[in-house]
What does this fold into?
Amino acid sequence: MSKIKEGIFYTDSHEWVEYIDDIAVIGLSDYAQEELGDVVFVNLPEIGDKISAGEAFCDVESVKAVSDIIAPISGEVTEINDELADNPEMLNSDCYSAWICRVGKITGEGKLMDAKVYGKFLVEQE
Amino acid sequence: MRLIFEKSRQGISQSILPSLDVPKYKFAPQLQRKTAPRLPQVTENDLSRHYSQLARRSYGVNTGFYPLGSCTMKYNPKIDEEIAALSGFAAIHPLQPPRTVQGCMQALEQTSRLLCEICGMDEMTFQPSAGAHGEFTGMMLIKAYHRSRGDFDRTKIIVPDSAHGTNPASAAMNGFSIVNVPSSADGCVDIEALKSVLGDDVAGLMLTNPNTMGLFDKNILQITQLVHDAGGLNYYDGANLNAIMGVVRPGDMGFDVIHLNLHKTFATPHGGGGPGSGPVGCKKILADFLPSPVLYHTCCALDFAAPPQSIGKVRAFWGNFSVIIKALTYLLTLGGEGIKQAAQIAVLNANYLKSLLADDYDLAVPGICMHEFVLSLERLKKETGISALDIAKGLLDCGVHPPTIYFPLIVHEALMIEPTETESKETLDEAAACFLKLYRLAYDDAQILHNSPLTTPIHRPDDVSAARNPRLKYQF
It folds into this structure.
């Protein structure tokens, strides 16, 4: 069973988003990293990129395929996790610490689930 | 097997060049290299053996079953190579005056006519070098068409989620934004989802039919009509034409522009990266925008000219000419009936192999398939831990080339199998036996499959660290 972190929100495409004050932190859920398999490359967004909820804003490459990461919210990228460029395996080993980017100037959000609803969603997926 | 660099011994190679008897030419200092290249030194005999050993270790469509199918490369009849190598075709120069290459120009025109007939198109360009280049060219035609009508607001291209990854890329390279439409449960385009994204900002739709699930979209006429009604054009990705050539024509399905992969469907080789050929055919409404130059008839000969509103060149000269000659040879040796039969047998073979596997393996979508079918190993993985990758590696130990894995992306643990028309029933039976043996092995002794392949020169490489820390050259 995939690990689900409490207190943060999830999308149906398995990104997580955590709100810290007026900043949103985005990453991949445990289910996502399990499905992807070993991640070998993260194509990070750039600071200043405008992202919009429901649309791809960066991608990750695993040994299986390249997969889009879908923005859970709309806003502007204020910070990226450079560490992932050299250590993409962090997405596999500790997905809830390995954030991808931080987003500010949030203008909207897509359909988000809390941990409990996401847990049910995963069970339905099985 | 040792690498050529590991076989190298200083001083063993000999120069076989005669001594210099013309004045030495001195290059400018910035062009002179400071150190000699670090080439391996081996004897001619050892060099010959090295490459023969490498060749013996390679596996291809000439070695055994190769279910990557026309999607990658189907069997190429040898006569195609022989004809393309005739000096009249092979020893010409692209800058020769047209009057001196009338035969070659006739061959181009004849190929264009035959392919247009198969696709239901009116005109064709041979310039694009391969499929994605063809897509790019087709998207340019659609853009030029809308602009010529003074319509600058059509900025979106609709692409189904089962499309080849090159489709959205080709559209994006032309400045379009991509709208994804999901597939419905039967693997085809979701009509309601399509309707919801159509509007006067849609430039066109890109579709592969049969799609990557190996299914012919039965709503195709409705789909293309809906796009036309919204003022968009329909682009046909010819990647899977092998299933329908001679049977049904994309032009009759409502498509306006199409690319073909001569190196997939029309039996020209492209292993090792080329050369391919991705001709683009179009309906009359797009003909004026075709890349320059196109063929036309003067009173008594063929000549080249630029179409009136041409998008310009997309490649130097006339495309990969020898590939076109191979395709022409293939078309003429099979003939109209043969082309149709090739498609029919490709579909029959896929369905036969599918029926042999369907009792054990799960089909991604049930029912009759076209030239290829997709298995999902999701359940097998849950029950045994054996993934699509493990089955693929196990097939290597059976002496069978694995099929495409993890594609299409919308199927979990996908195996996409395309046997093509040239495989015999015996070969398909043998291949099916291998697949079924591995399925049982997953339940009986999964560890064997986790360790496979064991009989190949290289066992299971560590593809994760190979991708994370690639070593792309020999480390001296």
